[in-house]
Amino acid sequence: xxxASYGCYILAFLVGGVLPFTILYLGHGFFNFLSMAAxxxxxxxLSPGRQRGLGFALYFLPGxxxxxxxxxxxxxxxxxxxxxPIFIASFxxxxxxxxxLMLGVRVD
Length: 108
What we know:
mainly alpha; about 85% helix
């Protein structure tokens, strides 16, 4: 599901027109939402039983923080560089996150 999410995200910026962009961007959000069960089960497997609540709190913390900070960062980028670099920065953050998960997390 995560590959479909990233695929829709990349295609949204490669196709022309507002309608295809909107449809593919919504597809990105839909497939990203479907990966939540897999992410939650991975968190449950990696967290010790006594600290599982802390693990889930730390898992959801970055999303909450970015939900508050990202609009301000995007506004600064949009004011200084335009709208398109916001999506390039977002894609770069995705790539870094995937690399960290692929190289830094070991699951038995």
